[in-house]
Amino acid sequence: MVAAAKRIDVTEDLVPIGHFKTHASEHIRRIHATGRPMVITQNGRAAAVVLTPADFEELGHRAFARAKIDAGLRSAETEPTYTPAEVEAHLLAKIRSAARRAAPAQAAAGAPAKRSRAASGRRGAATSDHAATPTASPVAAAPSVEERPARARAPRKA
User: Fold this and answer.
1) Using CA atoms, how far apart are residues 65 and 71, in angstroms rounded to an integer?
2) Where are the alpha helices (H) located in 8-52, listed in sequence order?
3) What does DSSP say about strands 38-42 and 14-16: parallel, antiparallel, or unpaired?
4) Global pTM?
5) In the chain, count of helices (H) and strands (E)?
6) What DSSP character marks residue 142?
7) Which among 30, 9, 29, 27 has a CA at the least distance from the CA of 18?
8) Tens-digit pLDDT profile for residues 51-63
């Protein structure tokens, strides 16, 4: 939500620094009550602006958003742009490439290689020989919930 710029009331919101020093709490209450920033003057010139914390935070968010939008516009002007179809094709190619790189690593780690039905020589066989070979994984060797002995709980301390 973009808030409208708060206008400064010249008769109330311009305060000399000496007056601000002696009546700081009164001025801060007025800033919160009116929602307008206060300009502190020194030797007749603006020296500082006092804002509520919410207004200050909003300025930071606006500056951040403006910088990101400007960077995006510069990027769109100077760098190539892509259609959604080109982006999709590029991402699919990266996924396939990563899968091809991961396959040799899995084979080297002992993962069984997948074979097609034609390569297995059996009609209707599973797509990999993984299902036909017994596994020695600790998960397969773990007893089922029914086979596990019941654990005795320690009594609660009072």
Assistant:
1) 10
2) 10-13, 17-22, 24-34
3) parallel
4) 0.41
5) 7, 3
6) S
7) 27
8) 999 888 888 898 9
Q: Which domains does the chain have, with CATH numbers?
A: 10-51 (3.40.1620)
pLDDT in tens, 107-126: 766 655 555 555 555 555 44
Contacts of 158 (CB under 8 A, 6+ apart): none
Encoding tokens for residue 32? 């919160």
Distances (CA, A) of 144 to 89, 131, 135: 45, 20, 16
Count Cβ neighbours within 10 Å for each residue of 80-104 and write b for 16 or more, e otherwise: eeeeeeeeeeeeeeeeeeeeeeeee
Three-state SS at 84: helix
For the CA atoms of the chain, what is the radius of gyration? 35
**Residues paired with 42 in a beta bridge:** 45
The Cα–Cα gap between 34 and 26 comes to 12
